[in-house]
Amino acid sequence: MVKKIKRWLQHAFTPPWRQRVLFPQATLTAIETAIAQSETTHSGELRFAVENALSSRQVWHDLSARQRALELFSNLRVWDTEDNSGVLIYLLLADRTVQIIADRGINKRVPQAKWDEIARAMQTEFSQGNFQRGSLLGIERITALLVRHFPATADNLDELPNESVMI
Fold first, then answer.
1. Where would I find the beta strands (DSSP E) of 45-95?
2. Which residues have a Cβ under 8 Å from the Cβ of 164 and sit 6 or more positions away?
3. DSSP per-residue string spanning 130-162
4. Domain residues for 46?
5. Which CATH number goes with the domain that contains 65?
6. In what order do the strands lie in the sheet with 45-51?
7. Residue 9 above 80 pLDDT?
8. Contact of 105 with 145, CB cutoff 8 Å
9. What is the four-CA torsion angle of 8, 130, 114, 92, rounded to 10 degrees?
10. What's the rounded Cα separation, in Å, for the pair 107 and 98?
11. Domains in the chain: how many in total?
12. I want to staple 132 with a disulfide (CB 3.0 to 4.6 A). Which of 5, 26, 27, 69 is the partner?
């Protein structure tokens, strides 16, 4: 119960402006550019989402960062690609966590341990205050996996928006 209350307080008192400070427009532009460049080298699709905090109700009902990432994967239609090759990078600032959700086409070829490794590398950068560097590092490492398993095709369509989603 103490852990639940502590998490509730973290989310309740995470200032709403925090994500704008950690992810200013220049950082969001760099992320969008990196995603656009990445997608020219493979047939996967990347989405990047940052959420400041969950609602009090979500926290009280023990919604985990992973469960929320799965909800957003669906809501943002990351699954809606021809080759089932979408990847969501989700940051939940109040929990200080990164979740990477890959569609089933990719998960057949890339084990969860690889996504967890990339998420840890991003979190290490974030813990040092390097939010742009951590974000670009994650995109770079995901790109390397997608190039290997989903190389670009002749009709390499851009199926999902490249801009970051700030929730």
1. 45-51, 86-92
2. 23, 28, 31, 32, 48, 49, 50
3. -HHHHHHHHHHHHHHHHHHHSB--TT----S--
4. 2-166
5. 3.10.310.50
6. 97-102, 86-92, 45-51, 165-166
7. yes
8. no
9. 20
10. 18
11. 1
12. 27
Q: Is the pTM of this model over 0.85?
A: yes
Pairwise CA distance, residues 154 & 43, whole Å: 10
Alpha-carbon Rg for the chain, nearest whole angstrom, is: 16
DSSP element (H, E) containing 115? helix 112-127
Place of tokens 């966590």: 97
The amino acid present at 104, given as its one-letter code, is: R
- Mean pLDDT, rounded, for 90-100: 97
Distance CA 134, CA 67 (A): 22
Joined tokens for residue 152: 């670009």
Q: Which residues contact 103 (CB under 8 A, 6 or more apart)?
A: 78, 79, 81, 84, 85, 86, 87
Would you state the structure tokens that stand for residue 51, as one six-digit string? 């959420």
- pLDDT of amino acid 80: 86
167 vs 5: CA distance, rounded Å: 23
Task: Evaluate if residue 121 carries a pLDDT over 80.
Answer: yes
